[in-house]
Amino acid sequence: MDILERLLKGAHVSAADPGFEKVSAIIDKNSLLEQDLNCNRHTHAEQHQLLEKIMQQKIDPTTQVSLPFHTDFGPHIFLGKNCFINKNSMFVDLGGVYFGNHILVGPNVTFTSLNHTLDPTHRWDVNSASVHIEDNVWIGADVTILPGVTVGKNAVIGAGSVVTKDVKANTVVVGSPAHFLKAI
């Protein structure tokens, strides 16, 4: 199993792993594409094509991504249909960020699927844990979603929240760390 598959499966990967050369090559290529996407004028169709190149997959035409858009990797972002991602989103996606359908994402939202070890002698190693956003979720502005979190169907995450654990379906959570506010 190559490094990309291991990262999607929640692996601990040493910074010395030779597979990181493959990761670095993709990051280098996508950094240039991201810069082009965010800094140059493009039609909507051209923006969509650049996003597909960054993510290395088709994106449903009903999904919209507002610029600027940021990722530290790209190919491990999986978007559903009819999603709206507002300006200045950040995807730390080596561990996988999965969207269902009909997702609303406010501005300045960060999705993080990686963490580093606490042991300072191995601090550069990474632990991956995918993020899952189920159908009909609304994520407010300035939210951070941490590795391993699943946000259940129809949930709402209030602006400024830091989501450290799973969010149940049909609930509203707010705060840092995010906590249950009410059922929907």
UniProtKB/TrEMBL annotation:
Entry-linked Pfam families: Hexapep (PF00132)
Keyword Magnesium: no
Keywords associated with the record: Repeat, Transferase
GO molecular function terms attached to this record: O-acyltransferase activity
Entry annotated with the keyword Cell inner membrane: no
InterPro entries attached to this UniProt entry: Hexapep, Hexapep_transf_CS, Hexapeptide_acetyltransf, Trimer_LpxA-like_sf
PANTHER family: ACETYLTRANSFERASE C18B11.09C-RELATED, SIALIC ACID SYNTHASE-RELATED
Family under the similarity heading: Belongs to the transferase hexapeptide repeat family.
Name listed for the protein in its UniProt record: Sugar O-acetyltransferase
Organism, as annotated: Fructilactobacillus fructivorans
